[in-house]
Design brief:
Blueprint (H helix, E strand, L loop, with lengths): L6 E8 L3 H12 L4 E5 L11 E2 L3 H8 L2 H7 L2 E3 L1 E6 L2 E6 L2 E2 L2 E2 L2 E3 L2 H14 L3 E4 L3 E7 L2 E7 L3 E9 L6 H6 L2 E4 L5 E8 L6 E4 L3 E9 L2 E8 L10 E4 L3 E4 L2 E2 L2 E3 L5 E2 L7 H16 L4 H25 L9 H13 L4
Parallel strand pairs: 1-2, 1-13, 2-10, 5-16, 13-22
Antiparallel strand pairs: 3-9, 4-9, 5-6, 7-8, 11-12, 12-13, 14-20, 15-18, 15-19, 16-17, 17-18, 20-23, 21-22
Helix pairs in contact: 1-4, 1-6, 6-7, 7-8
Length: about 325
């Protein structure tokens, strides 16, 4: 243990959401010691509640599938797409086992299930603790200083979300792909059986039932950032940190890249990136390149799908052309 350090771990994870918990769980499954530093005292309501088919496999790998099923989250086989007077049902698909179903999870419950699993496997969890800055030696993160202690680790995983905590401290490049975008979100009373994606001019609104008489909603004006309106706001400008992994560090989830919620993969990508970061930490230096290739490929694929979707909006966002150019640049100059 280095002088002045309160403790040493193989991995320190900053952020106790889906990405951070997935990283900590994976590290513990591979026999590494892990510390999770989470600023909130307990899980709270937040956007990102719609989980599409495919997430069951992730839950199984993390060992939380039974807990998720016991939580009794609403399930659905698809969603409605509404454009003006036209409405159609968009199913997720099916196979020989039947229709594919997603979850409409309540995030505070999902986050609690994940952080409890990390504890169950032996991860040390410090809640109501703020990561102030990384400890850096020779350009490499070797620990984290919190508001009351300092810890050392071979690797630091930033899973603290779109504030890009580690990117700012390390001075990593942050490539902005879209014009500034703000997602507004909230919850209100209302009934309904299916999630609904409603196109509203150059923007959209998503509504989904989260209980018998409660609906979650998210809306984005694609003309650009808006500071007004109902609900809470979150910066969802398309952006990616380059490189999002390197000597001694990994960025997972929104700490690595951000897209607006219409990409529909936010929580899924967060957990998968946490798993891959945990696996890469045990796989040697070559796994850093694998992680970079996977993260940039997923970001570009989802961003291109969004650009294709928004090209059909009337009017289409004026910044789509520059966004496509930025994506071509990333594809031509990959950071791995």
């Amino acid at each position: 243990m280095a002088t002045g350090m309160s403790g040493s771990f193989d991995v320190i994870v900053v952020g106790g959401g889906p990405a951070g918990c997935a990283a900590a769980i994976t590290c513990r499954q591979n026999g590494l010691t892990a510390l999770v530093i989470e600023a909130d005292g307990s899980p709270r309501d937040r956007p990102g509640e719609t989980l599409h088919p495919g997430v069951d496999a992730i839950f199984g790998r993390l060992g939380v599938l039974e807990g998720v099923e016991r939580a009794g989250f609403l399930r659905h086989t698809g969603h409605r797409v509404v454009r003006g007077l036209n409405s159609r049902f968009q199913p997720y698909g099916s196979d020989e086992r039947g229709e594919w179903r997603g979850y409409q999870a309540i995030r505070r419950q999902l986050d609690a299930i994940l952080i409890d699993r990390a504890r169950e496997l032996g991860a040390t969890v410090r809640q109501s603790t703020h990561a102030v800055e990384p400890v850096v030696e020779g350009g490499r993160p070797v620990g984290v200083r919190t508001n009351d202690e300092t810890f050392r680790a071979a690797f630091v995983v930033d899973a603290a979300g779109p504030v890009h905590w580690l990117q700012r401290h390390l001075g990593l490049a942050l490539l902005q792909v879209s014009d500034p975008l703000i997602a507004r979100f909230g919850w209100d009373d209302g009934a309904g059986d299916l999630p609904e994606f409603r196109v509203e001019g150059c923007g959209w609104r998503w509504e989904a039932p989260v209980g018998a008489a409660r609906r979650a909603w998210v809306s984005v004006d694609l003309h650009g950032a808006s500071t007004g309106g109902a609900g809470q706001g979150r910066d969802v400008t398309w952006r990616v940190v380059r490189p999002c992994a390197g000597a001694g560090y990994f960025l997972a989830g929104d700490a690595a890249c951000v897209l607006d919620p219409a990409s529909s993969h936010g929580v899924l990508r967060a957990m998968e990136s946490g798993i891959r970061a945990g696996e890469a930490i045990t796989g040697g230096p070559a796994s850093i390149a694998d992680y970079l290739a996977w993260m940039e490929s997923w970001f570009c694929s989802d961003a291109l799908a969004l650009a294709n979707l928004y090209a059909d909006f009337v009017p289409a966002p004026a910044w789509l052309g520059s966004a496509r150019e930025a994506l071509r640049y990333i594809a031509m100059k990959p950071f791995f």
